[in-house]
Amino acid sequence: MSTEKRELMCVLTESEWKERAKDHARFSQRKEQLQDQNKQQAAEMKERISGCSAQIKKLRRAVLKGAEPREVECEWRADFHSRQRHLTRLDTNEVIQSVTMTLDELQGSLSLTPDEAEQQS
Fold first, then answer.
1. In a domain, 38, yes or no
2. Is residue 7 part of a domain?
3. Which phi and psi (to 5°) does residue 72 adopt?
4. C-alpha torsion angle, residues 10, 15, 18, 24 (rounded to 10)
5. Are residues 48 and 78 in the same domain?
6. Residue 107: which pLDDT band, with cuts at 50, 70 and 90?
7. How many CA atoms lie within 13 A of 90 on its CB side?
8. 24 close to 30: Cβ distance less than 8 angstroms
9. Do 64 and 78 reside in the same domain of the chain?
10. I want to staple 112 with a disulfide (CB 3.0 to 4.6 A). Which of 12, 38, 108, 116 is the partner?
11. Domain total in the chain
Protein backbone atom coordinates (compact mmCIF):
# COMPACT_ATOMS: atom_id res chain seq x y z
CA MET A 1 0.00 0.00 0.00
CA SER A 2 1.14 3.54 -0.77
CA THR A 3 0.57 6.72 1.21
CA GLU A 4 0.35 10.33 0.09
CA LYS A 5 -0.20 13.69 1.64
CA ARG A 6 -3.03 16.01 0.71
CA GLU A 7 -4.00 19.44 1.88
CA LEU A 8 -7.36 19.09 3.60
CA MET A 9 -9.47 21.30 5.87
CA CYS A 10 -8.82 20.84 9.59
CA VAL A 11 -10.64 22.49 12.47
CA LEU A 12 -8.46 25.04 14.28
CA THR A 13 -7.88 24.81 17.97
CA GLU A 14 -8.80 27.91 19.99
CA SER A 15 -5.15 28.99 20.29
CA GLU A 16 -4.59 28.48 16.51
CA TRP A 17 -7.72 30.51 15.78
CA LYS A 18 -6.51 33.39 18.02
CA GLU A 19 -3.08 33.29 16.36
CA ARG A 20 -4.61 33.42 12.86
CA ALA A 21 -6.88 36.29 13.92
CA LYS A 22 -3.88 38.31 15.19
CA ASP A 23 -1.92 37.56 12.00
CA HIS A 24 -4.91 38.58 9.90
CA ALA A 25 -5.20 41.92 11.72
CA ARG A 26 -1.44 42.52 11.47
CA PHE A 27 -1.30 41.78 7.73
CA SER A 28 -4.42 43.86 7.07
CA GLN A 29 -2.85 46.82 8.84
CA ARG A 30 0.45 46.35 6.97
CA LYS A 31 -1.41 46.18 3.65
CA GLU A 32 -3.14 49.51 4.40
CA GLN A 33 0.19 51.10 5.31
CA LEU A 34 1.76 49.90 2.06
CA GLN A 35 -1.21 51.14 0.05
CA ASP A 36 -0.93 54.57 1.71
CA GLN A 37 2.81 54.67 0.96
CA ASN A 38 2.11 53.67 -2.62
CA LYS A 39 -0.45 56.48 -3.01
CA GLN A 40 1.97 59.01 -1.55
CA GLN A 41 4.82 57.86 -3.80
CA ALA A 42 2.51 57.87 -6.83
CA ALA A 43 1.45 61.44 -6.04
CA GLU A 44 5.09 62.51 -5.67
CA MET A 45 6.03 60.86 -8.95
CA LYS A 46 3.06 62.44 -10.71
CA GLU A 47 4.18 65.85 -9.42
CA ARG A 48 7.75 65.26 -10.61
CA ILE A 49 6.57 64.11 -14.03
CA SER A 50 4.28 67.12 -14.28
CA GLY A 51 7.25 69.40 -13.52
CA CYS A 52 9.27 67.78 -16.29
CA SER A 53 6.36 68.13 -18.70
CA ALA A 54 6.06 71.84 -17.92
CA GLN A 55 9.79 72.36 -18.55
CA ILE A 56 9.61 70.40 -21.81
CA LYS A 57 6.67 72.53 -22.99
CA LYS A 58 8.48 75.76 -22.08
CA LEU A 59 11.69 74.67 -23.84
CA ARG A 60 9.77 73.44 -26.90
CA ARG A 61 8.12 76.86 -27.29
CA ALA A 62 11.49 78.61 -26.95
CA VAL A 63 13.10 76.34 -29.55
CA LEU A 64 10.23 76.63 -32.03
CA LYS A 65 9.84 80.41 -31.71
CA GLY A 66 13.50 81.24 -31.21
CA ALA A 67 12.40 83.49 -28.32
CA GLU A 68 11.26 83.17 -24.73
CA PRO A 69 9.54 85.39 -22.16
CA ARG A 70 11.86 87.31 -19.83
CA GLU A 71 11.53 90.14 -17.33
CA VAL A 72 12.44 93.37 -19.17
CA GLU A 73 12.65 96.87 -17.70
CA CYS A 74 10.00 99.11 -19.26
CA GLU A 75 9.11 102.77 -18.83
CA TRP A 76 5.94 104.76 -19.40
CA ARG A 77 6.68 107.83 -21.53
CA ALA A 78 4.24 110.64 -22.15
CA ASP A 79 3.71 112.02 -25.67
CA PHE A 80 1.62 115.14 -25.17
CA HIS A 81 1.43 115.88 -28.91
CA SER A 82 -0.42 112.60 -29.62
CA ARG A 83 -2.03 112.57 -26.14
CA GLN A 84 -0.70 109.06 -25.62
CA ARG A 85 1.40 107.31 -23.02
CA HIS A 86 3.74 104.67 -24.44
CA LEU A 87 5.17 101.72 -22.54
CA THR A 88 8.68 101.37 -23.94
CA ARG A 89 11.16 98.51 -23.55
CA LEU A 90 14.39 99.99 -22.21
CA ASP A 91 16.56 97.29 -23.82
CA THR A 92 15.35 97.97 -27.40
CA ASN A 93 13.33 101.22 -27.10
CA GLU A 94 10.41 99.38 -28.71
CA VAL A 95 6.95 100.69 -27.82
CA ILE A 96 4.96 97.69 -26.59
CA GLN A 97 1.76 99.43 -25.50
CA SER A 98 0.09 102.80 -26.05
CA VAL A 99 -2.84 104.26 -24.14
CA THR A 100 -4.72 107.52 -24.40
CA MET A 101 -3.80 109.91 -21.63
CA THR A 102 -6.47 110.80 -19.09
CA LEU A 103 -7.58 114.39 -18.53
CA ASP A 104 -5.68 114.40 -15.23
CA GLU A 105 -2.50 113.31 -17.01
CA LEU A 106 -2.95 115.97 -19.68
CA GLN A 107 -3.62 118.67 -17.07
CA GLY A 108 -0.55 117.55 -15.16
CA SER A 109 1.52 118.82 -18.11
CA LEU A 110 0.18 122.32 -17.52
CA SER A 111 2.05 122.53 -14.22
CA LEU A 112 5.38 121.86 -15.95
CA THR A 113 7.71 124.64 -17.03
CA PRO A 114 8.04 125.02 -20.81
CA ASP A 115 11.46 123.32 -20.69
CA GLU A 116 10.06 120.37 -18.72
CA ALA A 117 7.09 120.04 -21.06
CA GLU A 118 9.46 120.01 -24.05
CA GLN A 119 11.53 117.25 -22.42
CA GLN A 120 8.36 115.19 -21.84
CA SER A 121 7.46 115.14 -25.55
1. yes
2. no
3. -130, 135
4. -60
5. no
6. confident
7. 7
8. no
9. no
10. 116
11. 2
DSSP of 59-92: HHHHHHHT-------EEEEEETTTTEEEEEETTT
* Inter-residue contact 12 to 19 (CB < 8 Å): no
Both 97 and 114 in a single domain?
yes
Q: Mind listing the pLDDT tens digit for each residue in 61-81?
A: 999 999 999 999 999 999 999
Domain end (from 69, 87, 107) = 69
Query: Is residue 2 one of the residues assigned to a domain?
Result: no
**Is residue 95, in this structure, part of any structural domain at all?**
yes
Structural domain of 37: 13-69
Q: ∠120-96-84 over CA atoms, to 5°? A: 40
3-state secondary structure at position 5? coil
Helices first, then strands: H and E counts in the chain: 3, 3
3-class state of residue 96 by DSSP: strand
What's the CA gap between 77 and 85, in Å, rounded? 6
Torsional class of 71: left (φ above 0), alpha (ψ -120 to 50), beta (otherwise): beta
pLDDT in tens, 8-51: 999 999 999 999 999 999 999 999 999 999 999 999 999 999 99
